[in-house]
From TrEMBL:
InterPro entries: Gypsy_RT_Integrase-like, Integrase_H2C2. It comes from the Eukaryota. This is Integrase zinc-binding domain-containing protein. PANTHER family: ENDONUCLEASE-RELATED. Residues 13-42 form the Integrase zinc-binding domain. Signal peptide: none annotated. Pfam families: Integrase_H2C2. The lineage of its organism: Eukaryota, Viridiplantae, Streptophyta, Embryophyta, Tracheophyta. It comes from Trifolium medium.
Length: 80
């Protein structure tokens, strides 16, 4: 099963469609994908963050605060 670098479940289904079957097929496929260097480099790129994450350091906890003020809201007949 060469070509696309797909997830373990998809790999197991592809092998099943090709006529292969064994009891631990799905588990083995997931383990193969975890260990495959090419699968890790090229598969599931949509799960990677779109940009590099940066840390934000603060001189003390809660140094930056944000607040949103809303209202007044109209009351209903039930005073909610």
């Amino acid at each position: 099963m060469n070509g696309q670098h797909i997830g373990g479940r998809s790999l197991a289904r592809k092998a099943l469609r090709a006529g292969f079957y064994w009891a631990t097929m799905q588990t083995d496929a997931k383990e193969h994908v975890k260990k495959c260097d090419k699968c890790q480099k090229h598969g599931d790129m949509h799960l990677a963050p779109p940009i590099e994450l940066k840390t934000l350091s603060s001189s003390w906890p809660f140094a930056w605060w944000g607040m949103e003020l809303l209202g007044p809201f109209p009351t209903t007949s039930g005073q909610n």
